């Protein structure tokens, strides 16, 4: 296996997940003048989609590496999410997909991001929940997925489960969540081949897998009958309450709704 370039990996991530993401975002009722920020914008499909939906608003795409963002649509900001310091009440939507679980200060970022919302504004966090490798249908899948997780040291691939409670602790209401199984295997939605291809050199260098593991993994993925669910992608969102005079909440409820 050869390493894939980051652009291909980001594009693959987008094409496998954008439909799910916009299914959530389109349900939030954003106005055409909404101000939005996408944290860890990658190759920019979410930011671009928000520009289309909010033509009279403002969309900021933040990333450490802005080389995959074209800058002609959203406003591009090269920055570390951990260092961001937007004014309170700057946004109607703060969105972060597949990035916060990798940050050491993820809990603090959630609290900080909630403070950037205007009343009625939404914070939407999407991250993977990694299912136990030992439940994989084949030993080679278990070995590869365990190795991949070890390579992500510093990331927490089960952190997303805590996000509903973090949103509640940050004072948000109307907390909801939905999930989508991430497909591994010979289907259009597979997003593992590019991830493992890109990780292959590091996995080999650290002795976490062998060339023969990678070859077997690769051949499994193209078997017509093979399909597996190594992770579930969870999207979680909540909104900043509107406060009436006397600090009474006039819309928004702490009730949590589930959508599966
Ligand atoms: C897995 S990609 C996800 C990209 C995009 N959110 C998506 O879902 O298509 C993670 C992105 O977050 C960016 N990133 C990682 N750590 C970051 C940080 N501390 N500050 C800003 N961006 C960061 C990476 O450069 C990369 O573009």
Describe the structure concisely:
The protein has a single domain (6-240), classed as Vaccinia Virus protein VP39 (Rossmann fold), CATH 3.40.50.
Low-confidence stretches: 252-258
What is the element string, with H for helices and E for strands? HEHEEEHEHHEHHEEEE
Mean pLDDT: 90
By helix and strand content, what is the structural category? alpha/beta
Number of strands: 10
CATH superfamily: Vaccinia Virus protein VP39
The CATH class is Alpha Beta
Task: Compute the number of helices.
Answer: 7
Taking all Cα atoms into account, the compactness measure Rg is 19 Å
Shape: globular
CATH topology: Rossmann fold
Strand content: 25-35%
Across the major sheet, the strand order is 3-2-1-4-5-7-6-10
Query: Judging by the overall fold, what is the CATH architecture?
Result: 3-Layer(aba) Sandwich
Termini separation: 36 Å
Describe this structure as you would to a colleague:
- The protein has helices spanning 6-25, 45-53, 106-115, 139-151, 163-169, 192-205, 211-221; strands at 35-39, 58-63, 75-78, 91-97, 117-130, 173-185, 227-239, 242-243, 249-251, 257-259.
- It is an alpha/beta fold.
- The chain has one domain (6-240): Rossmann fold (3-Layer(aba) Sandwich).
- An eight-stranded mixed sheet has the order 3-2-1-4-5-7-6-10.
- The two termini are 36 Å apart.
- S-adenosylmethionine is lined by residues 10, 13-14, 40-42, 62-65, 80-82, 97-99, 102-103.
- It is an enzyme of class 2 (transferase).
């Amino acid at each position: 296996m050869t390493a894939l370039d980051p652009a291909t990996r980001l594009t693959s991530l987008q094409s496998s997940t954008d439909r799910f993401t916009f299914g959530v975002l389109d349900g939030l009722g954003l106005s055409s003048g909404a101000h939005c920020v996408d944290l860890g914008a990658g190759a920019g499909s979410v930011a671009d989609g928000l520009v289309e939906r909010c033509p009279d608003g403002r969309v900021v795409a933040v990333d450490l590496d802005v080389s995959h963002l074209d800058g002609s649509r959203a406003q591009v900001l090269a920055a570390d999410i951990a260092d961001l310091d937007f004014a309170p009440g700057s946004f109607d939507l703060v969105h972060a997909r597949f990035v916060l679980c990798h940050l050491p200060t993820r809990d603090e970022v959630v609290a900080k991001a909630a403070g950037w919302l205007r009343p009625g504004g939404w914070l939407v966090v999407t991250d993977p929940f990694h299912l136990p490798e030992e439940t994989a249908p084949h030993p080679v899948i278990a070995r590869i997925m365990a190795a991949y997780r070890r390579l992500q040291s510093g990331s927490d691939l089960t952190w997303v489960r805590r996000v509903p409670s973090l949103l509640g602790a940050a004072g948000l209401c109307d907390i909801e969540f939905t999930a989508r199984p991430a497909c591994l295997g010979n289907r259009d939605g597979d997003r593992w081949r590019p991830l493992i291809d890109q990780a292959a050199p590091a996995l080999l260098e650290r002795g976490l897998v062998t060339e023969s593991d990678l070859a077997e993994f690769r051949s499994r993925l193209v078997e017509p009958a093979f399909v597996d669910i190594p992770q579930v992608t969870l999207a979680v969102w909540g909104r900043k309450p509107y406060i009436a005079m006397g600090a009474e909440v006039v819309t928004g409820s702490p009730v949590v709704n589930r959508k599966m």
